[in-house]
């Protein structure tokens, strides 16, 4: 059996980069994703000129547009259906375990996500580790620093998703050497790296972001698809709210820096997700609230709406099978209890359909924040950041409950809700619950809910109670506990690499 088959056939091949599996040398004029060949002296050339670097940057950005399955579709399943916002939606064995808490290492969704996240990291590593070796003088020092910064922000974003899902995972920042018969013993371990700790993962994310913020492009109001300084600041605010690096002073600092970058709430909540009057295109792109989004226009639309509901531009497209992430009765009741009709109507819609897994087929609830093939998929927006600042103000060593309440009231005012009552504003525990509720209603179906519960140690309290009060949920298989905070590592990864160990509880 050839060495190439042995190693490239394993998922772990992707862990250390896309240049890792070729035993052959290609001529310099033959391009591939792996390498642009070697020189006459045998030196490998990854990017032969500025154009090759810029082509690879385009590939990184296309990951946000064309590879949305893991960072958007699957993340919504995990964050909303594994929490109390949604039911799985279909009866498929790959999705139901997120609703009834029976997830195992054999889950195909998690296996797909692990592999694709690491492929994304490998693509970023390829640029980060090789851009300074490009000999083309047309690629200026400033451009090298900027492209490397953008790639580091992309890598940090991917690692942030991974560490919140799995905790410990291999933190890979290099590219493996090619394997030959002569160096196999020396190179072998590069293909099977050990896990890093959750803390080490966060420290790498922090390092990438602090490095990147120096050279990344500034926020561009007319283009929110770029990995800018503002995206780095958003991620820094988010990582400093997490337990391993928790520093509420820094959360507040980076939230304030985003305000200085020019971000504020959109005038109307419907500006974020709505369609135009003719239902032919999204209402707005690049709102003043959006920090990072993937954009789709006529002729280059996305397919995510197929997974969640109707495509309003093509009414019957892919609407013959049950959809994922069905809004839960508990979430709908939470909107109703608050009198929050604006966000309810922007988050949940009812259609007639041909299935009745969770609701009557003639009045079935669907997630509504992705409405057509032209909807922008918003990864980060300012309301999330504002509420993180409120969280920091509540939970820091010397709480400022009044300032936190003012932020929550600002979010509520946009959707015509009243201010928090005095009894809540003056009680820390009540403010934590108010914050969590506000984040739930504001950010429903945006991949936040599960991670909010984990970050604030509310998983057991919330999730073990919801099955009894939500008549639509499938029966709970296992109770939630501290070992539930991480997802199981895919069994195929454990089988391929004995240096990676399963998370406790699975």
From TrEMBL:
<keyword id="KW-0472">Membrane</keyword>
<protein>
    <recommendedName>
        <fullName>RagB/SusD family nutrient uptake outer membrane protein</fullName>
    </recommendedName>
</protein>
<dbReference type="InterPro" id="IPR033985">
    <property type="entry name" value="SusD-like_N"/>
</dbReference>
<dbReference type="GO" id="GO:0009279">
    <property type="term" value="C:cell outer membrane"/>
</dbReference>
<feature type="domain" description="RagB/SusD">
    <location>
        <begin position="378"/>
        <end position="506"/>
    </location>
</feature>
<feature type="domain" description="SusD-like N-terminal">
    <location>
        <begin position="75"/>
        <end position="240"/>
    </location>
</feature>
<feature type="signal peptide">
    <location>
        <begin position="1"/>
        <end position="24"/>
    </location>
</feature>
<comment type="similarity">
    <text>Belongs to the SusD family.</text>
</comment>
<dbReference type="Pfam" id="PF07980">
    <property type="entry name" value="SusD_RagB"/>
</dbReference>
<dbReference type="Pfam" id="PF14322">
    <property type="entry name" value="SusD-like_3"/>
</dbReference>
<keyword id="KW-0998">Cell outer membrane</keyword>
<keyword id="KW-0732">Signal</keyword>
<dbReference type="InterPro" id="IPR011990">
    <property type="entry name" value="TPR-like_helical_dom_sf"/>
</dbReference>
<dbReference type="InterPro" id="IPR012944">
    <property type="entry name" value="SusD_RagB_dom"/>
</dbReference>
